[in-house]
Amino acid sequence: MRIELKAIHKRFGAVHANNGIDLTVAPRAIHGLLGENGAGKSTLMKILSGFIRRDSGEILLDGKRGDFKSPAEAIRAGIGMLHQDPLDFPALPVIDNFLIGHEGGIMQDRARALADLNRYASHLGFDIHPDALVGSLTFSRRQQLEIMRLLSFGAGILILDEPTTGISPPQKAKLFETLNLLVGEGLTVLFVTHKLEEARQLCDRVTVLRMGRVAGELIRPFTTDQMVKLMFGQSPAGSVRETPVLGEPVLELRNACVADGRLRVQSINLQVRAGEIIGLAGIGGSGQHLVLRACAGLDRLATGEIRIAGTQMNRQAYGSFLDRGVAYLPAGRLEEGLVPGLSLMEHFILTDRTGGSFVNWGQARSHAQEMIKEYDIRGTPDAAIESLSGGNRQRALFALLHPDLKVLLLDHPTRGLDVESMKWVWNRLLERSSHGTAIVFASSDLDEIFEYSDRVLVFSGGRIIGTLSTRETSLSQLGELIGGNGL
Amino acid sequence: MSGDRRANLGWCIASVVLGLVLTALALVAVGADPFECCRVMWNGAFGNSAKFANVFLTWIPLTLCSVGLLIAFTAGLWNIGVEGQVVMGAIAAAWVARTIHLPSPVLIPVLFISGMMGGALWALLAGVLKTHGKVHEIFGGLGLNFVATAFALYLIMGPWKREGIASTSGTAPFGRAAWLPTFSDGLPAGPVEIVLTIITLATVHYLLHGTLFGLRLKATGKNIRSAFWMGIRTNCHALGAFALCGMFAGTAGAFQAVGVWHRLIPSISGGYGYLAILVVLLSGFQAGAVPFIAFFFSAISKGSVALPLDLNLDSSLGGVLQGIMALLFVLSWGVRKRLRRGKAPRVT
What we know:
Helices cover about 35% and strands about 25% of the residues of chain A.
């Protein structure tokens, strides 16, 4: 089946996730969709598979208009999507998962379903027991099950969103083998990834997205270098910041390990000095977030040691990190930092750590007005925080930070902001840095990392694969390192 | 803000009117005369001064429970356990009344303080289950409600049974010193209790709107992650909200035992713990509206008692009416959201 996407637009609030995307996918081929985190790949694929609705644009399947209101409608038209996080039912056995979504009467034909499942499994060389609980299967098996389920619906187009995250090299090889087999039998595969090497190995053609637009298209044979250029752009690599005057070490991680349920970042050794700016680069979800949270005292280290200005802080609560001048600015401004339903003024009262037990509303109002002026926030003291625009929310968060900080940790400080707000954010940060605040920030915008950092830590799959000085490295070297090619 | 409150009031009144209309339709459907019903209920609630005072006898514990819930809801806690906290407050007060003998002016405050503690500790149990045991407060509270009710029944039928016969009609009455003094003979609720209840309400309103503690509770309730990010000790605040809510519920329980029944009975809570949830919902979480809605609900509850006698209708009609009203008001939130989304241009 031939897919044509024409001028697809999708906005989430202020973020233009898909900004007029045109994409044509030829039948019986593996088409790669590449791009950094936030480039708009997943959004586009979710639109195609009926998971979310586009704002405008056209979808044509073999020249006929397709307009899916739900994934069920999309799968009936032959489009199936394998999501990055599996959307299956861990508490149910394999066979029930396989059956889910199929139409039929009240009584299910389990015998036929079982025969179907076994037929697909033996054809594709999968080894899955029908009665096993899905929750007990490896990630890779769950993918295989989902692929078989989608095929059983008669999917002619298979969309895979970052399918190689969290599976081992042999499992990956098996997946690629399966995809090649299916394409040989007439299937069309849309392969969403940020891993350049995989795209180069597997795809007949790749489309690169960048900031919601198509940055370019490459047809086999293509090189990793070409992909890097499309993905990260080619900005002049001359705007590295001047060597700053550095002070005492304010943040130290020694042999630290941080982990959550999915990811474990090990043997982190880092020393950040007053006035230094450190950029955390790498594909999103490679461990940057975990390290930032641990440095902020929001999560405890699994092992190792963390020191703030020389003091060991391993067992300290978040509050004492705050008291020692450590602050963290989360990426989810409205989810993790601001409180929807409260006014701007109420936010200032809550973060003022000097106030008494009673609220002096008159004083609070005049304080809020001062802050609004100083931080150039477009809003009134009584404005509900959620009514502010993205840029103004970020300004509000900055205004909530203590003016005198030792360490400032930021997760994607300029994500979703317009150029003017981005400039504003960095002017503020550079100003703080010049007063001796150490800044550690994660970003998926390589230009930003390169322009403002003194040092860059490159993360990949829970490991820090390199520590580079921006003054000794080029932007494209950094890009290749992130793309998984090594230096 | 005031525009918001006015809209709330408008929707509240609309819900009440629509609730009355729907209930009237239900009455017509079963062949009863809604106007006659109204008259009977009115007489049942306000027919004479004794009946009027009886409405206040319901109003006091109902308002106290609602006040507690205002705190819990502000902190984003669906403390369904108020009912059990009322029972435990009553049990604590009854225990003191049965064991300690003091002159009335000393004993009465002690009884109320023990009631507060009983309710607060029971609420803290639900709170600790939530903050440290990851048991959602709805399930924890519901479970503890059953435990509290069963415990009351056990005491009444077991250790605290009447001389000679155990009876579900309750324990033996407390000594006279443990009876809350009445206003005058025949009028059970006194102006002192009413005034104290109103002062409590005003204090809680100030606590929620004039103190940093109240603002922190609000932040915790609206977005616990952001609140934590701001440095608010969210667990402490949640437990504080539980304890305060339980304290007011316990006060209501003590009032039921000491002021109304003068003994412990199985249904000592009077269902006020549940009814208060409806009151607070219908108030739109506004302390200012609570006493009026609580009064309205008390009048319905008391008035509907007259229904079976005069009209051969079940008194649960009052509950139906209260439930429909609260349901309609909660429904209006959804309606309003939809209207707003339809009208207002999206802010970007």
